[in-house]
């Protein structure tokens, strides 16, 4: 998914906690339109000023359930990424993916689709005609310094669901409850979907070196001493050996995201994760050259699929030079 804001904020992000209390911190989302006037809207909880990163997780968009006949669904033409990995995870619906490595895939509920941008990639995402209701998340992972220019690629993994203490669990990245995902990560990570019946309390052993985020998809939960409802993200700093979740009266579905603090400062702007202002501007110009169809600067993002009828222009560059914060 692209960040379709016409004036995206340039952010310097670090792993320094926004709150050093051991209890949870509730992060509210903000609505962002995914395209034109009838566009589907997404709820973005990362990044924000209160919290930039959870491990290497640096971007969390939560959308739906949306009736695509009313919103037009997801329609994101070809656009670039550098220095990150995208994680697509659906609860309902179907999305068609194409990218400049030649990958062509369909994103379906309960199946991980992970695209590594690394040195540079471009892709498109469209909800299919088989989709009535679209509902899911788009997540980004910042690549650590030693791997941020790794070769681009695409991976698919369909984890098997299992039951733990009455909850349904799907582990798509990392390890939880003794179940591991085979998908390679470039930094220590956790990603899992958890579905809890009404009133159920679930206790999970976790790595105390990780910080964690609980994104509530449906229902309401109490975790780390705070209450959260659909669309909110609860952050907890490293140190906890257990994550406890108690579902409300209607049950709940959440994503548990975790990771060891990245301990690197990153610069995010539009669809790029870099380290300096100059890198971001260079990649913007290279995307401009690629869309124009030529020149030595046009090769970073690979050859566009013949099916693409359009690509997204980059927003105007930041008006002022980046000033580090935090």
Task: Give a brief outline of the structure.
This protein has helices at 68-71, 277-292, and strands at residues 11-13, 25-27, 30-33, 41-46, 57-67, 75-81, 84-92, 95-99, 104-107, 112-116, 121-127, 133-142, 153-157, 162-164, 167-173, 175-176, 179-180, 189-196, 201-205, 211-223, 226-229, 233-236, 242-259, 266-269, 272-274. The chain is mainly β.
Which helices and strands occur, and which strands form pairs?
Layout: E1 11-13, E2 25-27, E3 30-33, E4 41-46, E5 57-67, H1 68-71, E6 75-81, E7 84-92, E8 95-99, E9 104-107, E10 112-116, E11 121-127, E12 133-142, E13 153-157, E14 162-164, E15 167-173, E16 175-176, E17 179-180, E18 189-196, E19 201-205, E20 211-223, E21 226-229, E22 233-236, E23 242-259, E24 266-269, E25 272-274, H2 277-292
Please explain how this structure is put together:
- This protein has 326 residues and is mostly beta strands.
- The protein has one domain: Jelly Rolls.
- The chain is built from 2 helices and 25 strands.
- It has helices at residues 68-71, 277-292; strands spanning 11-13, 25-27, 30-33, 41-46, 57-67, 75-81, 84-92, 95-99, 104-107, 112-116, 121-127, 133-142, 153-157, 162-164, 167-173, 175-176, 179-180, 189-196, 201-205, 211-223, 226-229, 233-236, 242-259, 266-269, 272-274.
- Strands 2, 14, 15, 18, 19, 20, 21, 22 and 23 form a 9-stranded antiparallel beta sheet that branches. A 7-stranded antiparallel beta sheet has the order 3-4-5-12-7-10-13. A 4-stranded antiparallel beta sheet has the order 6-11-8-9, with no helix packed on it.
- The two termini are 28 Å apart.
- Residues 16-22 have low confidence and may be disordered.
- Fe cation binds at residues 79, 81, 123, 125.
- This is Pirin.
- Residues 40-141 form the Pirin N-terminal domain.
- Belongs to the pirin family.
């Amino acid at each position: 998914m692209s960040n379709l804001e016409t004036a995206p904020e340039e952010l310097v992000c670090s792993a320094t906690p926004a709150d050093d209390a051991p209890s949870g911190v509730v992060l509210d989302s903000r609505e962002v339109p995914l395209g034109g006037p009838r566009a589907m809207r997404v709820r973005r909880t990362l990044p924000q000023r209160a919290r930039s990163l959870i491990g290497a997780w640096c971007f969390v968009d939560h959308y739906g359930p949306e009736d695509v006949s009313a919103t037009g669904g997801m329609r994101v033409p070809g656009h670039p990424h550098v220095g990150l990995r995208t994680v697509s995870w659906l609860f309902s619906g179907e999305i068609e993916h194409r990218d400049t490595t030649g990958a062509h895939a369909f994103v379906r509920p309960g199946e991980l689709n992970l695209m590594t941008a690394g040195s540079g990639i471009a892709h498109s995402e469209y909800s299919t005609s088989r989709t009535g209701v679209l509902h899911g998340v788009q997540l980004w992972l910042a690549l650590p310094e030693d791997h941020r220019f790794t070769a681009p690629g695409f991976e698919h993994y369909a984890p098997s669901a299992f039951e733990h203490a009455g909850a349904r669990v799907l582990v798509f990245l990392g390890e939880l409850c003794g179940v591991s995902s085979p998908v390679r990560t470039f930094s220590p990570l956790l990603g899992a979907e958890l579905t809890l019946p009404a009133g159920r309390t679930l206790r999970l052993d976790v790595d105390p070196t990780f910080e964690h985020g609980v994104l509530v998809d449906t229902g309401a939960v109490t975790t780390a001493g705070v209450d959260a409802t659909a669309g909110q993200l609860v952050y907890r700093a490293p140190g906890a050996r257990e994550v406890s979740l108690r579902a409300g009266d209607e049950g709940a579905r959440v994503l548990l995201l975790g990771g060891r603090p990245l301990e690197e400062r990153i610069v995010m702007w539009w669809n790029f994760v870099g380290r300096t202002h100059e890198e971001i501007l260079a990649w913007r110009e290279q995307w401009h050259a690629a869309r124009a169809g030529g020149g030595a600067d046009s090769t970073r993002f690979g050859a566009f699929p013949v099916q693409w009828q359009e690509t997204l222009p980059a927003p105007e560059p930041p008006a002022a030079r980046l000033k580090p914060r935090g």
